[in-house]
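Key result, reporting period 2: structure in, sequence out.
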């Protein structure tokens, strides 16, 4: 049976194919592991043995548990040890924007302020498909169920996220459609946009016009006339921001897809570009490694506070911080949250962490930033794109057909998934073909390749409070 040992410190290996006793992607003991002893993978602790484990025995949830409740894992220190990345130049063909980074798509968004006008936006988008021509990539209604009956932080977050979506560089034009009586009114949204360049955005309230459909179609027809003539031009990599996300991870995600995406992150950053890593709960157990890559003590302190706040949020809701992995993760070979997290953070590459962003905050720095958002695929992918990412690199071991409102490239951790779900998967990372993935990212940014899920455009919000 083919196996792999990731780090010389490890006391478990990984099976690369199904065996009689151990499934593909799962772990086996390299030597006897006593009850209570740490289980080591990636050279780091991924849990404790709950019973004696014999050499060669299957190591999984039946004999291992998380060690995150031990209490000694939160004594964080700062010991900077990020890699130095060699500078390199790269470019892509995109759309130059005024006051924003370059776009990789020529999209028109229709954004409702409140779920009450979803049907209006859907109808507008459906009829407006006849207007798509020239270089226009599409006209999309980005519907949601919120915008009213939310209070406090939730109400502010919805406003921020919708405005950030409207500011995404992939949007050539944006029509914001309000009702006229909602909490998240147009006046508040336009006030939030003050200080940004938003000449590409127009808006109206349905209650203020006689025929909302005719009024909206008139605006969209003008948008289409303006956008159809737009042309791509060469843009420097400093104009690109990549979102980093994993979902439906398996035992191979930390071996193939996530490390391969980490190399792409390093190449983009070395060329002056940016990337954003999120999924804070899926850093638990590996957060110290990212803290040691923070470029300054100030960034370290911001990161430490973000992690502590998210853990306290879990605890305040009555849940342990290790309430993870998912059933699919476990079936694919991931045993504990620490193991999942150590694979997850590989997507950030080897360079330094330059900033920590609040949920709904736009990216500011070149390099890798960390964003405060949960692990949920739709919520976090939306948050990444709302913070300014024009593309999301989404690694997966189980597969998923979803897409957020920017191109969402599905990168499989294993060849069987890539073969079985060819209609979902854009790239098979089991090949570890760095040049191939880098070329595909640049082709996607330049409009030469469209991700297989790109016809789907969805958004979702991180909601914490009550609904009236």
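The corresponding designed sequence is given below.
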């Amino acid at each position: 049976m083919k196996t792999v040992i990731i780090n010389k410190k490890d006391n478990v290996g990984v099976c690369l194919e199904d065996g009689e006793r151990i499934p593909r992607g799962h772990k086996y003991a390299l030597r006897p592991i006593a009850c209570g002893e740490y289980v080591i993978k990636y050279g780091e602790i991924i849990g404790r043995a709950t019973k004696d484990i014999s050499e060669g025995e299957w190591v999984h949830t039946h004999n291992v548990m998380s060690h995150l409740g031990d209490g000694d894992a939160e004594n964080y220190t700062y010991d900077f040890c990020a890699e130095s990345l060699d500078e390199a130049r790269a470019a892509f063909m995109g759309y130059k924007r005024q006051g924003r980074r370059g776009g990789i798509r020529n999209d028109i968004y229709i954004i409702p302020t409140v779920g009450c006008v979803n049907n209006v936006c859907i109808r507008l988008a459906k009829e407006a498909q006849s207007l798509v021509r020239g270089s226009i990539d599409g006209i999309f209604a980005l519907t949601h169920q919120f915008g009213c009956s939310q209070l406090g932080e939730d109400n502010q977050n919805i406003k921020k996220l919708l405005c950030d979506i409207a500011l995404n560089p992939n949007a050539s034009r944006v029509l914001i459609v309000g009702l006229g009586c909602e909490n998240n009114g147009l006046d508040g949204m336009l006030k939030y946009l003050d200080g940004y360049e938003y000449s590409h955005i127009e808006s109206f309230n349905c209650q203020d016009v006689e025929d909302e459909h005719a009024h909206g179609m008139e605006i969209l027809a003008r948008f289409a006339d303006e956008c159809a003539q737009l042309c791509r031009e060469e843009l420097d990599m400093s104009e690109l921001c990549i979102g980093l996300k994993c979902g439906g991870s398996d035992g191979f995600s930390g071996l193939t897809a996530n490390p391969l995406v980490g190399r792409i992150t390093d190449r983009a950053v070395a060329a002056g570009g940016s990337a954003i890593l999120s999924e804070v709960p899926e850093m638990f157990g590996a957060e110290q490694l990212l803290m040691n890559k923070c470029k300054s003590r100030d960034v370290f302190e911001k990161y430490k506070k973000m992690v502590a706040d998210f853990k306290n949020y879990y605890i305040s809701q009555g849940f342990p911080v290790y309430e993870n992995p998912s059933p699919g993760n476990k079936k694919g070979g991931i045993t504990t949250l620490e193991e999942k997290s150590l694979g997850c953070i590989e997507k950030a590459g080897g360079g330094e962490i330059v900033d920590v962003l609040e949920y709904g905050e736009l990216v500011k720095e070149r390099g890798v930033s960390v964003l405060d958002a949960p692990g949920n695929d739709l919520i976090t992918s939306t948050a990444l794109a709302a913070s300014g990412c024009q593309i999301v690199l989404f690694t997966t071991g189980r597969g998923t057909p979803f897409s957020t409102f920017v191109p969402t490239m599905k990168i499989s951790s294993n060849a069987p998934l890539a073969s079985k779900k060819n209609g979902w998967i854009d790239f098979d990372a089991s090949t570890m073909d760095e040049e191939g993935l880098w070329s595909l990212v640049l082709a996607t940014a330049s409009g030469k390749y469209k991700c297989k899920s790109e016809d789907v455009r969805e958004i979702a919000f991180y909601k914490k409070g009550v609904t009236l």
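Residues 285 and 338 are 4 Å apart (CA to CA). The chain has three domains: 3-65, 107-229, 235-445. This case is discussed further under Risks and Mitigation.
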